[in-house]
Amino acid sequence: MSTPLAGKVALITGASKGIGAATAVELASLGAKVIVNYSASTGPAEELVAKIGTEQAYAIKADAGDVKDIERLVKETVDKWGRIDILVANAGIANMKTLEQTSEEDWESTMRLNVKGPYFLVQKALPHLAPSSSVILFSSSLANLSAITPNYLLYVHSKGAIEQMTRVLAKDLGRKGISVNCVAPGPTGTELFFKGKSDELVKTIASWNPHGRLGMPEDIAKTVGFLAGDKAGWVNGQILRVNGGMTVG
């Protein structure tokens, strides 16, 4: 098996379930050691570590929207494996609110995890990122969808901030040899996506895609694996809309 990420250490926030868990498995399969960050339930994180193997995976509980917890997360990662080569800011919340529905608490909780968290994760990890390291942020293809509906306002508002962070950080950190890119998935079959949706609605959303299906967490994880490797060495500041053609351009 090819192991292009052998010797590298990946820190992945929100890694116990869904896209984060698939990303941990993918990066480990490519040879990286992975930090499985989680915020609440220990069980799924420990199960994932056992699946990957304790020689390659380690779980750390931390709130990815709290700066002090982020500092501790970075420190424990470096204490455990001595370095950080791949930083994946996957943790986020999908709070669907129209303008009229949004409370100040809604806004603050969404921006705290979706924007503040990634911002300070990069800041705190930066002293440990050597040249050729990769920072991978997460947006959403909804940020580029013409048929967007009003209930997505709060969510895409936060993801728009991430896309601008990607553009500017790529210019800044690129001078240090560090790439910064953003993955923007389309509808993806995760536990969070299915929550509260009828079978009919899921089928309708899948029909928007020319492939006639939802994305799977593994589809997104493979893109992260590419961006984390040497083959993406000349890719910087890009927003990859990984959605099977649901949105184009």
Automatic annotation (TrEMBL):
It comes from the Eukaryota. One of its GO terms (molecular function) is oxidoreductase activity, acting on CH-OH group of donors. This is NAD(P)-binding protein. Keywords: NADP, Oxidoreductase. SUPFAM superfamilies: NAD(P)-binding Rossmann-fold domains. PANTHER family: NADPH-DEPENDENT ALDEHYDE REDUCTASE-LIKE PROTEIN, CHLOROPLASTIC-RELATED, RE15974P. Belongs to the short-chain dehydrogenases/reductases (SDR) family. It holds the Pfam family adh_short_C2.
